[in-house]
Structures are given as structure tokens and as C-alpha cells.
Amino acid sequence: MKRLARITAIVVATAASAQGQGVRVTGPKYVPARLMTVEAQPVRTSIPPAATANDQLFWQIGPPIDTNRPPPANQSQVGPPAMKAAPKPKPVAPLADPEKPGVGGQVWAEFDITDYTSRFSPSDKPEEGVKHWLLKTTGDVWTNVELACLSVSAERVKIYHNPDVQRKAAATLGRFLHFTPGVFRCRVRLVSTRSGDWRGDFADYLEQLPSAEPGRSAWRIPANAADRFARAIAAGVGDALLVDQRFDAPNGQLTVIEAIEPHDISPVVGAAASPTRVDDGLSMRLRPLIADGAAADVDVQIIGKKVVEPTVIEGGRDPGSEPLEVMTQSVQTTQRIGRDQALIVSLGRGPNYDRRPGLLKAKRPETLALIEIAPESGNTLAGGILPPPAIGNPANVANNGPARNAAARPRTPTKREIDDRNIQNLTASPRN
What we know:
By secondary structure, this protein is of the alpha+beta class. It has seven helices and 14 strands.
């Protein structure tokens, strides 16, 4: 039996390496400050010049004018009908006056985020990642209130809410602005297993995490046990390591890992003549965000889709009248893992995503995602706490108030950074 298991593991590893060639990773590219050559500039739309009196109109109201025909008796010239002048717009009071206290204690605040967004290409739209995490960390506070505002652009974040929400937003933005180098080293393994014995075999290592979706589960496991866990659950008959991918994920941004194979479904009777394209396989959407103490909040969404074709024993399929069976499963969760931990997410039992022929089809396998993520070495969060950015209030743009959109205050160095600096100063000069 041991020899059979060893041979099976070798076959699984070989097949997995062949399947891993079709994995595609897409996401924005983070550019460190020392490699930047062009600073991002705000995009301004050009305003067309105002029309002059000499400009000719390309349309005219009324019938054309015939200069050879005398004008009618009632009027001297045929021209456009008389039109009422547009009423002057009435002055409208602003919804929120920055110079007055807001309703229910709301106040204005602005945050400059160009130090973060300038590390990306404008086409990546890095402000979308900022908006995603602001909405997730502040909670359901933007509805069912008398007045609230959240505006996120590539240059700044504007918020009109109470001081408690302002503090939450400032803490979240500090996680974007004060994390250097701003990139995570990630490894994702998707495993298909038909046995659930791993729950008992690794019970001493697994830490159950709360999950709101029935039939979906998540665990934390020590990082030093991740390799042994992946080898153990993929060594059985019919098990497979579907994806093993290493990549860099920018802090706060979306990275997509796809291991899919497109299928064309022939149309049924009475439908359009063109076939329908279905992506068969697994897709993962990953958003990591640094947290205090060098931990990371990981927002994970995994979607699996499988096209099931009837076999000859089941009667086959008539392409002209019977559609294919498309099975879909998904899981969405946000969990926090430490530097020395890995995350396990289960999609439950579902379709078989292993493309190797001749496998057992009697029992549906369970698909697991093993996610390892860690900041790059030499990061600025060696057990420290992220400081929030400075708040620039538009109400302070009066005569002697501080400047609007002031830059974020400098980050307070951690104790470890101070000690490293002192040691470097002591050892830099030659000894006498």
C-alpha cells in the first residue's frame, strides 16, 4: 500500500505540473519608489473654447431663406421662432457646509493618497482597491443616515461623517500609505481530495475560523506545516494538486488567478446559431491588506465552474435539443492571518476539476485552497502599529488655518528601527 501511495503521489505531481502551465495570474504591478521614473499626474479633461460670434451654425430653425423671393407681408424675414429665455438658476444651499458643524456630528476630512496610487499605472485604477477596503472596514455606515459622503479618487479621499467613522477610515488609509515595500509574496495551491480524514490527521494544527456560508469552511494552519499538509491530502487515489502558483500581490489590490478552460456549448433548438462560451475550471480573486503586527487581512473569493457532459451509458446528449449541465460553486471570506500562518479555504464537495482521464467518478471530491502570504523581507512593520495619515479639513482653509490637503505627517519609527539605526551608527566608523 505504501508503494502504491508513493507511485500515486508521483503521478499526481507530474500531472499537476503539466496542468499548472495553463494558470494565468493577472493584477496591477507595484513600482517601488527607487525604481520610479515618472510621477503620476492628475488627469484633467480639456474644456472646449467658447463659441464666438463668427462661428457658423450647422443647423437652422424654420424653412430655408430664398433671397430671390420677396418677404411675406406679415414679416420681413423668415427666421427661427421666438424662444423664451432660460430662467436664471436659483442659488442652492450646499448639502454640507465645511465651515459649519454637520448634522449629527458629521465633519469633513480629506486624505492625500497620491503617495500610494502613484506606484501604479493609471490604467490599474488603484483607487478601486482603496474604496473596496474603506467600505469593508468601516461597515454599513453609509446608508440609513441623514447625510454621509465618501469620494475616492486617484489623488485624495474625501469623507463627510462623524469622528468615529473618520478614525476608522484614517486607520485603514494608514495601512495603504505606511507599508513599505507594499508587496506580498504569495503561494496558492488548489487541491482536490476525496477523503476527509485530513481533518482528524491535522486536528492539532488546524484553527477553525468563523464562516457565514453553510458548507464552506476556513482554517488557520502554521506556515511550517503547510507543505506537509498539501502533500498529505494530495497523495490518495483520485486526489490531485490542481494549481501551485507563486506570485507577488500588491498591498490592497486585486490579483486574479485563473485555471480555466473555455468550452463552446452548441445551441439548442430555437436559440441563436452561435455557440455559448463557458469557462470550465477554477478562478480565485485575492485582495491582501497589511494589518498591525505584520499580519494580513485576506479577502478571498473562489469560483468553480464545471461543464458536465452525459456519458454514453446515460444516453449521451443530443446537441440540437439538450443543453449541457453546468455546475457552479463559490466561496467568499475575509480572514486575518499572521506572518507564520497559512489560510485554508474549503469549497465543499462539488464538481471534479481534475482533467486527467480515467479517474474514479463515484464520489465528488472536496476542493481546498491553501494560501500562504507574507510581506517582503525588510518591511517597516516589524511588530509595529500603523499610524493613520494626517487629516486635512476643508474648514481650515480660512485666513490663518493650515493648508488644505496637507501631506501626511511623517511616520514614527518603531523601536526596532531605532535600534538598527543606532547599531549602524556605532559600527559605521572604523575603530581606533
